[in-house]
Design brief:
phospholipid binding, ArfGAP_dom_sf, about 35% helix, 4-stranded antiparallel β-sheet, about 270 residues, zinc ion binding, ARF_GAP_AGD11/12/13, alpha+beta
């Protein structure tokens, strides 16, 4: 799951790269499961009320002849709509700003709200249940470690400033005949690294032929680095032992994915499985 912290909406993988290209001052994109969130950020997202409430504000004046992109729309059509919606604010209802968004107003002049206090209170209480559900659901899927160091937090903030072109899902299936790093066996796990980002699988105890069957997600930076695959043996009282590594050039995959999304592509593309 991917969220735009600035606008408060859940976004799909196809739209996430476009949102990132807008810049963090317009749409700061974070992964629900891969990025670190503060309680204040979760509360702010819950306060916004979810996609329906946010779209009511950002799509209030959408022209009747303008078709909203579908899941199968080309990237040019998708990019045009998203930029008009969030960057140019062509469909924005400024009268809803005070009611829906806990952040400062967007980068255009604001208009005064003529909403009465009684109407404001009614809408406020109607949204309480929705906001509560969003906050609870978000925290239930939120996997961050309270003990992370300050250096890790600084690294995460630097990564958040990088522009991304999309996401890559890596299926970690299994390992065969891995090296022995303990007395008779090993406790292997896999780390995937892409630029400053790292994700890892679970540890499988005492197994030289482990089966993970895990799908891990990483954001692809604009300057595409190789995907690094590192295998370690988990140790309890000492530093984890290195077992092996490999590098994968993902540039051809990104190029093929872009070709599939261009209007000149007339047939489905099969990128294969890695």
């Amino acid at each position: 799951d991917i969220r735009s912290l600035s606008t408060g909406v859940f976004i799909c993988i196809k739209c996430s790269g476009i949102h990132r290209s807008l810049g963090v001052h317009i749409s700061k994109v974070l992964s629900v499961k891969l990025d670190e969130w503060t309680n204040e950020q979760v509360d702010a997202l819950a306060e916004m009320g979810g996609n329906i409430a946010v779209n009511k504000k950002y799509e209030a004046y959408t022209p009747g002849n303008l078709k909203k992109p579908s899941p199968n729309s080309f990237i040019d059509e998708r990019s045009d709509f998203i930029r008009r919606k969030y960057e140019k604010l062509e469909f924005f209802n400024f009268d809803e700003q005070a009611l829906l968004c806990p952040y400062p107003a967007p980068h255009r002049r604001s208009s005064s709200s003529s909403t009465s206090s009684s109407s404001h209170d009614k809408k406020h209480y109607e949204k309480q249940a929705t906001r509560h559900r969003i906050g609870i659901a978000f925290r239930n899927s939120w996997g961050r470690k309270e003990s992370e160091s300050k250096n890790s937090k600084k690294a995460n903030s630097l990564v958040a400033m990088v522009e991304f072109v999309g996401l890559i899902k890596v299926n970690v299936v299994k390992g065969t005949n891995l090296a022995v790093r303990d007395v008779m066996t090993s406790d292997p796990y896999v780390i995937l690294a892409l630029g400053h980002q790292t994700v890892k699988t679970r540890v499988i105890k005492s197994n030289l032929n482990p089966v993970w069957n895990e799908s891990l997600m990483l954001s692809i930076p604009e300057n595409i680095p190789p995907l690094k695959v590192l295998v370690y043996d988990k140790d309890t009282f000492t530093t984890d032992d290195f077992m092996g590594d490999a590098e994968i050039d993902i540039q051809p995959l990104v190029t093929a994915a872009r070709a599939c999304e261009t209007p000149i592509s007339m047939s489905p593309c099969n990128l294969g499985n890695g």
